[in-house]
Amino acid sequence: MKLPIYLDYNATTPVDKRVLEKILPYFTEHFGNAASRSHLYGWTAQDAVENARQQIADLIGAEAKEIVFTSGATEANNLAIKGLYELFSTSKNHIITVETEHKAILDVCKHLEKLGCETTYLKPDSAGLISLEQIENAIRPETFLISVMYANNEIGTIQPIREIGALAHKNDILFHTDATQVLGKVAIDVDADNIDLLSLSGHKLYAPKGIGALYIRKKSKASQLIAQIDGGRHERGYRSGTLNVTGIVGLGEACEIAKNELLAENQRLSILRDKLEQGILQNIADVQVNGNIENRLPNLTNISFGGVDGENLLMSFRDIAVSSGSACTSATVEPSYVLKAIGLDDNLAYATIRFSLGKFTTEEEIDFTIKYVKEVVESLR
Ligand SMILES: Cc1ncc(COP(=O)(O)O)c(C=O)c1O
């Protein structure tokens, strides 16, 4: 068993070897620019891009032409929200979102507020859930967008996406969801789930970093959103810039693998996750599990340890690679705003660990982790 054990799959994942194999020829013999229309090199790259577009669409029940490639979910979120704000700003200027969204949503809204946008940040309950009633009460005549993440990256809570989408549509409001953490873990159907725009990212799904996509519903006002990167009118003008063919091929392949393996893999992961969680709960005093236990990501458990100093806790976990909150915010030493929003005090938020399992997690690693966490926590106490 290799140490440290990687239990931070919600921060990023290794590239699946099958994905890597598919990508490699596009660095060398098939190196063409997908926008080169006059020769075989370009056509080969373009065919690969269109094949990947279909693979991604198939995973979420979309049409290939509804997929726009971006550099990741951060850019997809920026494109969705800024692009719609720019489209609507002369008539409507209000967005509804949630306090526990990723910074790639919250900071976009903060930016737009400087330009005249108004945002309502809904406060979730102690499980991280928001209710339809909260949304209904926040809707104004000027609301053009509801943006609610499919599942939270720190606590794993899955929101009632289908119902939120239906409520948005009933009120003639567009619905965007950041599904970065959900792709390949929960079955997504953009039609049944009433989603107009969906952000996704390759590196949470065993594809490379620096590739992602925005799903944009063709038959909705969302399709008129204003591009945020102008240039050579790639991606039908939605996002200019030479396509990252290797990343795109990888993302497509990762989506196809996820579609074929999703059910079995997530069943395996939830069994291992439950074993880890129960092992910690039963063997260590004064611990609590955060998030919505009934409906959350199958590979994740977020656990607070009472009576220990948070920084010491994370530093002491030398043999396991875990996260004390979102990896994307761990550059700052603030307690997690997600944990604070669901009611944890600063001390407990600091002493909280996110364990996230993935494709290469074994039962042996879980058994080791349970014993190891017990030893470390008890020695710190
Ligand atoms: C929910 C969520 N949204 C967006 C992002 C950012 O994605 P990317 O790294 O592809 O920009 C992350 C990454 O942690 C995330 O978890």
TrEMBL record:
One of its GO terms (molecular function) is metal ion binding. It catalyses: (sulfur carrier)-H + L-cysteine = (sulfur carrier)-SH + L-alanine. Its cofactor is pyridoxal 5'-phosphate. It is an enzyme of class 2 (transferase). InterPro entries: Aminotrans_V_dom, Aminotrans_V_PyrdxlP_BS, Cysteine_dSase, PyrdxlP-dep_Trfase, PyrdxlP-dep_Trfase_major, PyrdxlP-dep_Trfase_small. Residues 5-367 form the Aminotransferase class V domain. The keyword Iron applies. Keywords: 2Fe-2S, Iron, Iron-sulfur, Metal-binding, Pyridoxal phosphate, Transferase. Gene3D superfamilies: Aspartate Aminotransferase, domain 1, Type I PLP-dependent aspartate aminotransferase-like (Major domain). It holds the Pfam family Aminotran_5. Its EC number is 2.8.1.7. Belongs to the class-V pyridoxal-phosphate-dependent aminotransferase family. NifS/IscS subfamily. This is cysteine desulfurase. It comes from Arcicella aurantiaca.
